[in-house]
Amino acid sequence: MTVTKPALTLAVTTIVLAALPVTAWAENALAALDTNGDGVIGRQEAVSAQVESFRRLDENEDGQISLDELEAGQATPESEQPPRDVQRARDKARERWFKNLDRDQSDGISLSEYQSAMTPYFDRLDADSNGVLDGPELKRAIGMDDADR
Ligand SMILES: [Ca+2]
Ligand SMILES: [Ca+2]
Ligand SMILES: [Ca+2]
């Protein structure tokens, strides 16, 4: 299975970005997701973060994330707006990602659609396959994002 880098990193950032500004991602991802404080992110922690971010994104609580809700959830503060071309690339990636996830083409992402798309990303990020994501593994995900632009 091949996954393009932008799709990968967008999905990964979406796990946590519902809560965090883009620039704070690398520093805060561990702290935000590591609920039991063992310094790494376990699968269970990733899953709960996913469910939580889904709830947060689903603003009208209809059990579906619309493209608008996805966009609103990823909005960055005015002061942290990236350059316009980066913004545009991000918008495009988001749309592509949305279409990929919306398997039944209902124009909404259900929790199960959301989760089924996330699991492979966790496995992929877990470079040493030890079932947890550590700092370097997370940073690599961010690094890939930067390297692409
Ligand atoms: Ca909704
Ligand atoms: Ca759907
Ligand atoms: Ca690992």
Descriptive notes:
The protein is mostly helical and 149 residues long. It has one domain (5-147). The protein has helices at 5-17, 25-33, 43-57, 67-73, 84-101, 111-125, 135-147, and strands spanning 41-42, 64-65, 109-110, 132-133. It has a two-stranded antiparallel sheet. Strands 2-3 form a two-stranded antiparallel ribbon. Helix 1 (5-17) crosses helix 3 and helix 1 (5-17) crosses helix 6. The two termini are 23 Å apart. The relative contact order is 0.19. One calcium ion is lined by residues 102, 104, 106, 108-110, 113. InterPro entries: EF-hand-dom_pair (IPR011992), EF_Hand_1_Ca_BS (IPR018247), EF_hand_dom (IPR002048). Keywords: Signal. It comes from Salinisphaera dokdonensis CL-ES53.
Contiguous helical run count: 7
Secondary-structure content class = mainly alpha
Shape: globular
Q: Output the helix-strand order.
A: HHEHEHHEHEH
Domain EF-hand: 89-124
Pfam family, one: EF-hand_7
Organism: Salinisphaera dokdonensis CL-ES53
Keywords: Signal
SSE arrangement:
Blueprint: H1 5-17, H2 25-33, E1 41-42, H3 43-57, E2 64-65, H4 67-73, H5 84-101, E3 109-110, H6 111-125, E4 132-133, H7 135-147
Antiparallel strand pairs: 1-4, 2-3
The chain binds calcium ion (CA) (3 copies).
One calcium ion (CA) binds next to β4.
